[in-house]
Amino acid sequence: MEDRHPQRATGYRGEAGQGGGGGPVLVGGPIRTCVVCRAKRLQSELVRVRVATDGRPTTGAGFGRSAYCCDNYACREGLTARGRLSRAWRRPVDEGLVQAVRQEVLCQQR
Questions:
Q1: Strands 57-59 and 46-51, how do they pair?
Q2: Which pLDDT tens digit goes with each residue over 56-78?
Q3: Closest CA to 89 of 41, 97, 30
Q4: Which of 29, 47, 86, 89 lies in the 20 to 30 Å Cα band around 79?
Q5: Which domain range does residue 98 map to?
């Protein structure tokens, strides 16, 4: 009886330097995705937005679920549009919190 699962040639998968995504390789830390433009960048190049334990939005390091956006005006402005924060934070976001995020993020850029 013939083998239904023949062995693949060696080097097919898993060897260093073989295959890959074909895109630019980012080295030097964790990779995060901007929730606005979906660009993948180093975590240090993005702005982290999270809700602090007291319920107000804040930027920078801390615990909890967060959203990342590029450090430019277009992405900062688009952060509060179309439910992006509720998807990233996996919780409903009311209009008051959206306005507070907008104020925090846009003021932090100056």
A1: antiparallel
A2: 788 888 888 888 989 888 888 88
A3: 97
A4: 29
A5: 31-109
